Amino acid sequence: MLLVTGANGQLGRRVVTHLLARVPATALAVSVRDPGAAADLAALGVSVRRGDFDEPDTLPEAFAGARRMLLISSAGMPHEVRFAHHRAAVAGAVAAGVSSLVYTSLSTASPASIGEVHRRTEAVIAGSGLRHTFLRNPLYTDNFLGGVLEETELVTATGRGRVASALRDDLAEAAAVVLADETHDRDVYDLTGPAAWSQDELAAALSEVTGRPVTHDAVAPDEYARQLRAAEVPEGLVAVLLDIHATIASGGFSEVTGDLAALLGRRPLSVAEAVRAL
Q1: What are the UniProt keywords, alphabetically (predicted)?
Q2: Predicted TM-score of the model (pTM)
Q3: Strand pairing partners for 68?
Q4: Which of 70, 144, 195, 251 gets the most CB atoms within 10 Å of its CB?
């Protein structure tokens, strides 16, 4: 049986959708905090289990019977909490007799503010004795596109930096491909989109799609932070965004690999194609 954690989340749901196109629903299980929110999956024949990373004792039972498991990394909480979640999930997988673990990690170019949790988690998994595969995801293209069709100016601290992001759905499909294929063992995939793009190019794509001029205002980090705080963005998120923008500006997220295309068997969607699909 294949098992997906966090299946009520944005990435997890997409992974499940892609898995259901590849395997029978009865060969798939999901571990979620709120089984009621996955009632639609249960109706399809998916085994829905309650597994709460904050309650590690629930995890061995939630993971029971799974041969291969996708651990989708926690998000939106303090780093030490996220790491504790991941460590509990790995221990739960070992206790449940899972044979192979696939983990959604993050690009090694990521700044410490978002990448350190993943580096530590990879070390725990590597030392667990489990067969494992790391999917080092890039930044999500989706996160740059929220509400952009209404914008006439993109304000960032990325300078002329470029980012080889990918759509969440393409990454979910890749995760489904890997989870459903038992040949993966100690593989590491550095996943990226088909090309690195700049905010200027995003603005140009938006101008083309909307028919109105959209510009990119590359501001200094201090000014970007001021604008974020004026918009009442939480201070912790301000720090993370500044780190991400600084990494983009320095070229840290610009490397393009062919790993995602190889897993998908096709070219991933570009940022311009993603804009046209909005």
Answers
A1: Oxidoreductase
A2: 0.95
A3: 2, 100
A4: 70
